[in-house]
């Protein structure tokens, strides 16, 4: 089916046009996402997310070149995903530098139950909101702004929670960082 007709029908809210677009572009968009993300599962998820977002798109009348539009949306989505992964990795590396900056002897982690118990003990020293901030920033990989929005507080409050939480956890040595990687 012709792209111009698909766009016209999408503008007229014809749901069949969405199916036509999906069938025509799914495979090429998947290949493009796989090329960018280097991961089949992530690529499929990216393409599905883009199509899900397009279900709510209302300005089809402004789309002049459907193929270019779809590629651009997917490309930007993949770049955002890669950027978020890079930020999460950098945060984890910063966290590891902070936790390992003192010289401590690494504990024996052969017993996973003991390590989990120690981890829960260490995390119990954090307030619930500080613990939630750690979870959002370090485990979910959210930016400070996104974590702040999720908790309904300011970006500076998130930074303060992280800084004070790290101070508390550092007082126990690098054990927490080692346990987190052991259990991951």
TrEMBL record:
Keyword line: Sigma factor, Transcription, Transcription regulation
InterPro entries membership: RNA_pol_sigma-70-like (IPR039425), RNA_pol_sigma-70_dom (IPR014284), RNA_pol_sigma70_r2 (IPR007627), RNA_pol_sigma70_r4_t2 (IPR013249), RNA_pol_sigma_r2 (IPR013325), RNA_pol_sigma_r3/r4-like (IPR013324), WH-like_DNA-bd_sf (IPR036388)
Protein name per UniProt: RNA polymerase sigma-70 factor, ECF subfamily
PANTHER family for the chain: RNA POLYMERASE ECF-TYPE SIGMA FACTO, RNA POLYMERASE SIGMA-70 FACTOR ECF SUBFAMILY
Sample GO molecular function, one term: sigma factor activity
Species whose genome carries this gene: Chitinophaga niabensis
Gene3D superfamilies named among the record's database cross-references: 1.10.1740.10, Winged helix-like DNA-binding domain superfamily/Winged helix DNA-binding domain
Domain of life (superkingdom): Bacteria
Family to which the UniProt record says this protein belongs: Belongs to the sigma-70 factor family. ECF subfamily.
Pfam families: Sigma70_r2, Sigma70_r4_2
């Amino acid at each position: 089916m012709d792209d111009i007709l698909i766009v016209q029908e999408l503008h007229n809210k014809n749901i069949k046009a969405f199916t036509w677009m999906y069938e025509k572009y799914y495979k090429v968009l998947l290949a493009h996402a796989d090329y960018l993300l280097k991961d089949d599962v992530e690529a499929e998820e990216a393409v599905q997310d883009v199509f899900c977002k397009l279900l709510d798109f209302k300005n089809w009348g402004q789309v002049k070149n459907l193929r270019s539009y779809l590629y651009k949306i997917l490309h930007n989505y993949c770049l955002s995903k890669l950027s978020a992964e890079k930020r999460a990795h950098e945060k984890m590396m910063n966290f590891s530098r902070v936790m390992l900056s003192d010289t401590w002897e690494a504990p024996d982690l052969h017993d996973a139950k003991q390590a989990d118990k120690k981890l829960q003990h260490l995390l119990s020293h954090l307030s619930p909101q500080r613990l939630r901030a750690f979870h959002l920033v370090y485990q979910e990989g959210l930016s400070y702004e996104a974590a702040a929005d999720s908790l309904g507080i300011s970006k500076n409050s998130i930074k303060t929670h992280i800084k004070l939480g790290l101070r508390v956890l550092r007082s126990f040595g690098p054990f927490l960082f080692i346990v987190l990687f052991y259990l991951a």
